[in-house]
UniProtKB/TrEMBL annotation, chain A:
<dbReference type="InterPro" id="IPR029055">
    <property type="entry name" value="Ntn_hydrolases_N"/>
</dbReference>
<keyword id="KW-0963">Cytoplasm</keyword>
<dbReference type="InterPro" id="IPR023333">
    <property type="entry name" value="Proteasome_suB-type"/>
</dbReference>
<keyword id="KW-0647">Proteasome</keyword>
<dbReference type="GO" id="GO:0005737">
    <property type="term" value="C:cytoplasm"/>
</dbReference>
<comment type="function">
    <text>Non-catalytic component of the proteasome, a multicatalytic proteinase complex which is characterized by its ability to cleave peptides with Arg, Phe, Tyr, Leu, and Glu adjacent to the leaving group at neutral or slightly basic pH. The proteasome has an ATP-dependent proteolytic activity.</text>
</comment>
<dbReference type="GO" id="GO:0051603">
    <property type="term" value="P:proteolysis involved in protein catabolic process"/>
</dbReference>
<comment type="similarity">
    <text>Belongs to the peptidase T1B family.</text>
</comment>
<dbReference type="Pfam" id="PF00227">
    <property type="entry name" value="Proteasome"/>
</dbReference>
TrEMBL record, chain B:
<dbReference type="GO" id="GO:0005737">
    <property type="term" value="C:cytoplasm"/>
</dbReference>
<feature type="domain" description="Proteasome alpha-type subunits">
    <location>
        <begin position="6"/>
        <end position="28"/>
    </location>
</feature>
<dbReference type="InterPro" id="IPR023332">
    <property type="entry name" value="Proteasome_alpha-type"/>
</dbReference>
<comment type="function">
    <text>The proteasome is a multicatalytic proteinase complex which is characterized by its ability to cleave peptides with Arg, Phe, Tyr, Leu, and Glu adjacent to the leaving group at neutral or slightly basic pH.</text>
</comment>
<comment type="subunit">
    <text>Component of the 20S core complex of the 26S proteasome. The 26S proteasome is composed of a core protease (CP), known as the 20S proteasome, capped at one or both ends by the 19S regulatory particle (RP/PA700). The 20S proteasome core is composed of 28 subunits that are arranged in four stacked rings, resulting in a barrel-shaped structure. The two end rings are each formed by seven alpha subunits, and the two central rings are each formed by seven beta subunits. The catalytic chamber with the active sites is on the inside of the barrel.</text>
</comment>
<dbReference type="InterPro" id="IPR000426">
    <property type="entry name" value="Proteasome_asu_N"/>
</dbReference>
<dbReference type="Pfam" id="PF00227">
    <property type="entry name" value="Proteasome"/>
</dbReference>
<keyword id="KW-0963">Cytoplasm</keyword>
<dbReference type="GO" id="GO:0005634">
    <property type="term" value="C:nucleus"/>
</dbReference>
Length: 223, 280
């Protein structure tokens, strides 16, 4: 007698891709705005990006209901932190909080694939990449979501430092200028949109630097 | 109030129908340094007197931000006040999480009052020894509430609690009719003058008082020392005579050369058009 399998799943995958790139004094976080289920599009205009603190921005793909819940939990925790410490959370601190929050639901995970980008306490760009249960690492660039298999090799080609023996932290920050990084992100999404059916419509690009936060949008193919 | 045989437990009534422990808790509020609140249609201002125990220590934090639209000033056992502020912050965060909208201040003060009431009806607890002036905004405008250890709460146009608050209350009673229509600046000025009344003779400087404001379009925040000192100077609030070389002030103080008592100051209040209160 074969094991009975569930005829209902608590999860759904709403698709989409996220990317983040860290620079010397900036960080670029981007995600497409398409929300889908199965072969259908739910909306072409949904933001997967959330600003958790002054200098921390998170982009998450996966199951958007879980993503929304995760964003709310982190928001509330950040408020508590501010009340207790009288200041905003730093990006590395938020990174640890996100990891702990994800692992807290180790046995009923948030179906969320996150990249956290921001500026560290020295003002340098930082990117943290996660799996669904909170395993994380500081890197110079990362992508998550349905298009990540297409995007990541391309980012490696463009951004990865030649020596594979260097610790990630060493090539953590790309020598690209902010404008070049934004351009790279646009290129990357345009390419991913061609072959990944779940990525398209528009890309929302958030740029964090010393002067604050900026948002840009670029149209993508809608098919 | 004197010691009697009915004041040991909070769960013991006196024959006259009083709970002495609760009343003693309210006495504790009177021992704390003064806290003052006043409100207009669109703004609420909280002010408090900051007295450090000694020159070596820093002063107690008496005003807490609870949420963007709510703040609280306390008088009495500041430790109890801190704990209650944490509770209020937590309630606001949880409400916001569930309903994605700010907790109406009217609900918060009821929850706070109920929490205080519990401590008046458990033999293993004691009442909170702190009075709270809760200032906040909701859809119907600006509000100021007073929560006391007994579990009662009242809404006020203006109020003062703590030691020497009666002087501030007297000033506020004279002026409160105008508050509803007051501008933000006038409200702050009245708060500063009321605070000065509570200081009773001591010079009003930004180092002895804290001011916080919340209003429509203005999240709750505590004004920084420089701003407060500038406001004190702008309003040319005259202090009672102090030797001018007493302390070195970073901001310039414009001391009126004449020696005016606070009584004469009150007399000029009726003719106040936002100018110097000292004009006679």
């Amino acid at each position: 007698m074969t094991k009975q399998h569930a005829n209902w799943s608590p999860y759904d995958n709403n698709g989409g891709s996220c990317v983040a790139i860290a620079g010397a004094d900036y960080c670029v976080i981007a995600a497409d705005t398409r929300m889908s289920t199965g072969y259908n599009i739910l909306t072409r205009d949904y933001s997967k990006i959330s600003q958790l603190a002054d200098k921390s921005v998170m982009a998450s793909s996966g199951f958007q209901a879980d993503v929304k819940a995760l964003q709310k939990v982190l928001s509330a925790r950040h408020l508590i932190y501010q009340h207790q410490h009288n200041k905003q959370m730093s990006c590395p601190a938020m990174a640890q909080l996100l990891s702990n929050t994800l692992y807290y639901k180790r046995f009923f995970p948030y179906y969320a694939f996150n990249v956290l980008g921001g500026l560290d306490s020295e003002g340098k760009g930082c990117v943290f990449t996660y799996d669904a249960v909170g395993s994380y690492e500081r890197v110079g660039y990362s992508s998550q979501g349905s298009g990540s298999t297409l995007i990541m090799p391309f980012l490696d080609n463009q951004l990865k430092s030649p020596s594979p023996l260097l610790l990630p932290a060493k090539d953590a920050v790309t020598p690209l200028s902010e404008a070049e990084a934004v351009d790279l992100v646009k290129t990357v999404f345009a390419s991913a949109t061609e072959r990944d059916i779940y990525t398209g419509d528009k890309v929302e690009i958030v740029i964090l630097n010393a002067s604050g936060i900026r948002r840009e949008y670029m149209d993508l193919r809608k098919d | 109030m004197f010691r009697n045989q009915y004041d040991t437990d909070v769960t013991t009534w006196s024959p006259a129908g009083r709970l002495f422990q609760v009343e003693y808790a309210m006495e504790a509020v009177k021992q704390g340094s003064a806290a003052i609140g006043l409100r207009s249609k669109t703004h609420v201002v909280l002010a408090c007197v900051n007295k450090a125990n000694s020159e070596l220590s820093s002063h107690q934090k008496k005003i807490f931000k609870v949420d963007n639209h709510i703040g609280v000033a306390i008088a009495g056992l500041t430790a109890d006040g801190r704990v209650l502020s944490r509770y209020m912050r937590s309630e606001c965060i949880n409400y916001n999480y569930t309903y994605e909208s700010p907790l109406p201040i009217g609900r918060l003060v009821v929850q706070l009052a109920d929490k205080a009431q519990v401590c008046t009806q458990r033999s293993w607890k004691r009442p909170y020894g702190v009075g709270l002036l809760v200032a906040g905004l909701d859809e119907s405008g600006a509000h100021l509430y007073y929560n006391c250890p007994s579990g009662n709460y009242f809404e006020y146009q203006a109020f003062a609690i703590g030691s020497r608050s009666q002087a501030a209350k007297t000033y506020l009673e004279r002026r409160f009719d105008n508050f509803m229509g007051s501008s933000r600046e006038d409200l702050i000025k009245d708060a500063l003058i009321a605070t000065r009344e509570s200081l009773q003779g001591e010079k009003l400087r930004s180092s002895v008082c804290t001011i916080a404001v919340v209003g429509v379009g203005e999240p709750f925040h505590i004004l920084d020392q420089e701003t407060v000192q500038q406001l004190i100077d702008t309003f040319e609030i005259v202090k009672e005579e102090e030797p001018p070389a007493e302390e070195a002030q970073p901001a310039s103080e414009q001391d009126a050369p004449t020696d005016q008592t606070s009584g004469a100051d009150q007399g000029a209040a009726a003719g106040d058009q936002g100018g110097s209160p000292m004009e006679i």
